[in-house]
Specification:
By secondary structure, the chain is an all-alpha fold. The chain has helices spanning 3-25, 30-35, 42-69, 73-98, 105-111, 113-150, 154-169, 174-202, 207-216, 233-249, 252-258, 264-298, 308-316, 320-353, 364-384, 393-404, 406-417, 426-449, 458-474, 481-486. α3 (42-69) packs across α14 (320-353) and α6 packs antiparallel against α16. The longest helix has 38 residues, at 113-150.
Amino acid sequence: MSSTFILLIILGYFGVLIAISMITGGKSDNQTFFSANKNSSWYLVAFGMIGASLSGVTFISVPGMVEANAFSYMQMVLGYLVGYFVIIKFLLPLYYRLNLISIYQFLEERFGVFAYKTGAMFFLISRTIGAAFRLFLVAEVFQIAISKQYGIPFPVTVLITIILIWVYTFRSGIKTIVWTDTLQTFCMLLAAVVTIVLIKNEMNWGFGDMVDQIATHDYSQVFYWEWKSAKFFGWQFLSGALISIVMTGLDQDMMQKNLTCKSLKEAQKNMWGLSISLVFVNVIFLSLGVLLFMYAQANQIVVPEGDGLFTTLALKHLPPMVGIFFILGVIAAAYSSADSALTSLTTSFCVDFLGYGRGNKESKNTRMVIHILFSLILFGVIMSFTLLEGKSVITKLFKAAGYTYGPLLGMFAFGIFIKRSVANTVMVVVVCVVSVVLSYLLDLGCKEWFDFNMGYMVLFINGLLTFAGMWLLSLGTSQDQGELETI
């Protein structure tokens, strides 16, 4: 498949996204950009959030993970169900009751302005890193499939990748994204299913034969019981529950979509649909990984480890139809999360730091400038990732989340379940920073002295340390009766 043909596919795809942006834009204002005027249908949001939750990290990294981790990732996915239950029963009712634009406004209600700004800042750091990881993946694919043939350097590829997002999100923000995410989720899932079917045909299997081959393969092992291993069921399940809480329920990006629903009941329907769908979708992607390795082995193809597996086979060895759908799938997967990330970063900064929605002068031009600035920040962070070494981006993403989302987990948990305020709100900032540092040192110590890999459990330790610090700051304070009425 020629690079010119791939380029035409990409241009056609983005032409559709820009058309959707123009149709949904209309007379958009800041409220349209931030909350879609709270008029989104729950089923559109739910379907679109599948793509945003999975992203290009899942599309490329999860199939490549099966060689090292088999189906152990499903232990974490099962933990997601517990996390989504917490979101549905505790967090969504709270957000709708307080009528929030930014979910970090809750921290101001409970602990004051310093906790509020700290929570928002940790989100900005977390989501910037997460979005950059995802865009880094799609930029690498563009580089292999197109840019290299035209002699375009990687930094230019990254810049083009980000500009394409800006073009269709700068006008209507989250309103456009609710619709574009729906299209992108469909393309991503279609790409995975088409690839599976074509591999099945290439291997001359019936559907039942294919299922048997996957089920009996060594890579299909789900549960691991060695407690010192990072793949241990207990660590994976708990980590999955906590990751889904922080990366969905405490993440402005994901919750901004939920808050565009017409009511709490519809937002909860959205989350129930998302939680069930993700179990089946992750089984599809892990199964795809097994099939890719089996195809490579059967045809004596040497493939790179980790993230390069799907890319190499789809673009160089499988039938051209796979390559076409792979390009569509990886673009859809990466952009379904990256576009909303850029929008949520702009929303959080405008609401949490510039005071939009609180009577302050709300300039549409200022919002657009902030949108551009965050695009440039993403470019800088992505370029820094070229210095990283390793096999799987998804591992780096979740590990980074453990350090950046941990303070949010601790602050929100304390704010919801402990009814005391804190004596010194400035010290909340210190507690969050110290928790991150201690978590990092504990992780290093466990590896060095006990030969124990904490893995994704860094998130739990980090959140627990923040919670403990908040509890110490609350000693001697009275119960916050006002907040008791809102939770």
